[in-house]
Each structure stands twice: as C-alpha cells, then as structure tokens.
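Subject: design request, 214 residues
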C-alpha cells in the first residue's frame, strides 16, 4: 500500500485570543517552536515596536498611511483598531500556506477572530485564553514592564469586554498554570489536525486499504 499522499492535507488557522496579559503570546510562541508545520501569521500594525521586537518577526510595523493603502487594496483577511492602533492579517501569505498544507497561528483580538471565522469557517479553530483572576491579570501586565501605566490601565479597562466574547470560541483555557495550559493547547491543535475534513488523503488511503484482500 502506498504511503500518505504528499500535499493533500488542508492547513488550518489556529486563532488564539485573550485580554492583554493572559498569556496568549507566550503560549503561541512555544507552540510554534515545538511544531515545525505551524507558523505565525505576522500582522501589520501601526503601533511602535516594543523593546526586543523586530520588524517582520513579531509584526510588520507600518505607518498609518501605508496601512490605509493596504486596506484600500483589500490586502487583509481582517483588520481592526485595538488600543488606538491598527492591526491587520495579510491575505495572500495565509491562503497560500493553507493550500500547501501548512498551519497558521493567529495571535489576535476577538474582533479579528470573528472576521476570520466568518470568512473561512471550515479552516478556523478558535481558542480563548482566560486569566485566573483580574488581580493576577493586573500583576502580569505590570510585571512584564512593556507599557506605561496609562496604557496598562486602558488594557485592564477593556479586559472585561474582551472576556465577554469567550462564548464565541471553540475552546477556552484558563491560564493559571502555564505548563498545564500549554499541554491543553497542544492537545487541541493535534486533535484538530486529525479531523477528517482536513485530510483529503484519507479517501484514497481507505480505497486502497479495501482493495487488498486480507
């Protein structure tokens, strides 16, 4: 019997959202590091780089005029304004990856997740990450020391409204223990990769299996 055909698996879009500080970015980066078939969708944004961030790695940092031009050209799968800055997901690179059987991870807010899921419901898996408590969310935002106090307070102010979107997601994780949350995220990803609808090679495989008598 032939082995699994090459190139006939449809990639998936793994969308991870959370309020700022709940841990979606650290979980996402580790999942990508551990899975070579999974790559991060690098969004374009109008915000300035944070310490340690590089253009083209965490984000494509662009001016607002450049971002508006991309919107006019319909270059985004989705885009939204979050915390006074714009973020958008480039369309062409993502769709090419899915067609080639590659999985793409999205570290985006609920607005972007909603738009992507509406446009490609069969390709999207949505995971929402909750903090163990609001005081812990505040502590994490302060301890990472990436934003001034006024920005932190705005993020905390928006957190309840973001958390209210949890019911729109396929899976919900509580990131109280990082290693446990990461293990649960890995289980979700592995199970979704095995779904019948994403593995077109199975039809030929089963036909070959049944064509050979025991």
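Subject: RE: design request

Done. Sequence follows.
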């Amino acid at each position: 019997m032939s082995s699994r055909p090459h190139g006939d698996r449809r990639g998936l879009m793994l969308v991870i959202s959370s309020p700022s500080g709940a841990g979606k970015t650290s979980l996402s980066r580790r999942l990508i590091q551990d899975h070579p078939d999974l790559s991060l969708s690098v969004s374009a944004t109008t915000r300035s780089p944070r310490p340690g961030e590089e253009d083209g790695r965490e984000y494509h940092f662009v001016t607002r005029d450049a971002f508006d031009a991309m919107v006019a050209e319909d270059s985004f799968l989705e885009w939204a304004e979050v915390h006074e800055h714009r973020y958008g997901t480039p369309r062409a690179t993502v769709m090419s990856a899915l067609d080639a059987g590659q999985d793409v991870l999205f570290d985006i807010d609920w607005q972007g997740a909603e738009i992507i899921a509406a446009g490609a419901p069969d390709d999207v898996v949505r995971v929402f990450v909750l903090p163990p408590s609001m005081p812990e969310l505040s502590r994490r935002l302060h301890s990472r020391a990436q934003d001034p106090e006024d920005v932190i307070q705005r993020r905390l102010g928006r957190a309840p409204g973001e958390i209210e979107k949890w019911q729109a997601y396929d899976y919900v994780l509580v990131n109280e223990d990082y290693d446990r949350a990461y293990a649960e995220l890995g289980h979700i990803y592995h199970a979704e990769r095995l779904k019948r609808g994403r593995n077109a090679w199975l039809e030929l495989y089963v036909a070959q299996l049944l064509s050979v008598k025991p």
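The mean pLDDT is 90.
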